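Example record

The entry below shows one chain as it appears in the dataset: sequence first, then structure tokens.
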Amino acid sequence: MATGADLRRIALALPGAIEKPHFDRAAFVVARTFVTLAADGQTANFKFAPDEQALKCEVAGEAFAPVPNAWGAQGWTTAQLARLSRDELAAALEMAWRHAQPKPRKRK
């Protein structure tokens, strides 16, 4: 069973990750936000690609669900942390973290 404290520890161990406030949540950011943690530490919203979101929701529907608004259509996915193992949490964080990396600069 994963916790909000596990999420914070694993997320901040990823290269370049920092924590910032985001409304009533904690956001974990590299170039962009890759996950937000609810104030109660029970849920988190991850930024996945839409195909990754579909896979996570199909394979682990008891833990993952699309955010129920336009953000969900962009891949933002809510996870019930208590329904994830620490390894599943770490894999989800790394997947989301990869999408938040700085975009490569175009050469002129």
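Notes for this example: The radius of gyration is 13 Å. The mean pLDDT is 96.
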